[in-house]
Amino acid sequence: MAKILVVDDSSTVRDEVAGFLKKNSLDVATAVDGKDGLSKIKADPGIKLVLCDINMPNMDGLTMAEKVRGELGNSAVHIIMLTTESSPNMKERGKAAGIKGWIVKPFKGDAVLGTIQKLAS
Amino acid sequence: MSETMTSNLSSKVLVLDDSDEHALAIKEFCDENNLIALKVRKNRLMSVLQSNIDLGAILYSDNYGGSTRENAEIAIKIHTFRPELPIIIRREKLATLDDMPEIVQSVFCAAYVISDMGALRKVIDEYIFSLVYPNALVRGISEITETVLASQFKMLSISWSTPYIVRDRVIFGEVFSLIPLESNWCRGYMMLQTEEEPILEALGLFSADDASTNFRSVNSLLGEITNLIWGSFKNRYIGDASATSGNLIQVPLVVNHRHKYISFGTENPQLCFLYTLVDETTGRTVKLYQRFIFNLHWSPDDFKEIQHDTEELVESGELELF
Asked: Global pTM?
């Protein structure tokens, strides 16, 4: 099973999401903002799926996704936004950045576990 | 007032009036005008003022405290201690402040007499219920917050009391969060205030030995609750609209830690909600105060709820694949 990166500035969310994924035997890493996430994706080719918040300090999640596709030229990693945002404009920007999916917080692990496992396999 | 604007918000007023003769009239006035009248024993007045964080005003009287001099001294003391609270004095003969010494006059915002409670109603409208809030907004905030709290405190039951208006600037508890709310109809802040220990207990993290590190868990949780409420608020009431055009003014916020006091640079009353979370097994409670301070812009006539295309709606927590 490939690695999943959880990117969120909230330690509460990182602990909750990463804890849930680990409990379901998934390999998980965490990052505290988009900048940290970008460097971890760059450094670890084992990361195949990213669950990423949008509103974060230093670098927001959508900018991170755009840089993963643009600067890193990495089109293999799946990126799913996990965010409080749900506006059509935001989603359009996400689609343009090659986002695979969108989850509006709060995180309900059981509702998305199957798809996450599939995307990370 | 439009029917879509809130007319059922309440506010707490401290009644400092020794008159048995007029007590009923004052009580009836409060009941009719959504005021919750609080009484306090004289020897506890200052401690109550120190601890009560959600007052809207003080109804004073010129017979309170004994002699004229003592009466004035108490009023000055209250005003010095809590200048943000409007003090409205009941006079025996005329609804005027003109016959008082200047220093005492400055303590009061208005005077009224028991024979003309209509005048008191105007003062209350001016100093407490001066901002109107759309019903849909007040109801929506409660719904959003209750949903968010339920998602974060799955084992606790949640209740909330009738929203009310406060002029207090005193901070409840030890930890609070602030997040800006920016739209073409409002500019200001949402503030959440709570106590550290009850949250640590709710999280199962309370331990005197670890208090110096565990507080960060409270910070993080309060931050995420704030973020979730803000996100839902934005999705429901703001959408993609830009905040406002032109120059966006700002004013400094001032926090005085010693006095647990926060100023948003305005005298505007604040919309306040109190949520109580109860652990049914232990009886322990967590109190969360939520305040909305529209200090920079408030235009309730422009308020609107974003209509989402129901076919596009995806349940929160569900994955929408592109």
From this structure: 0.81
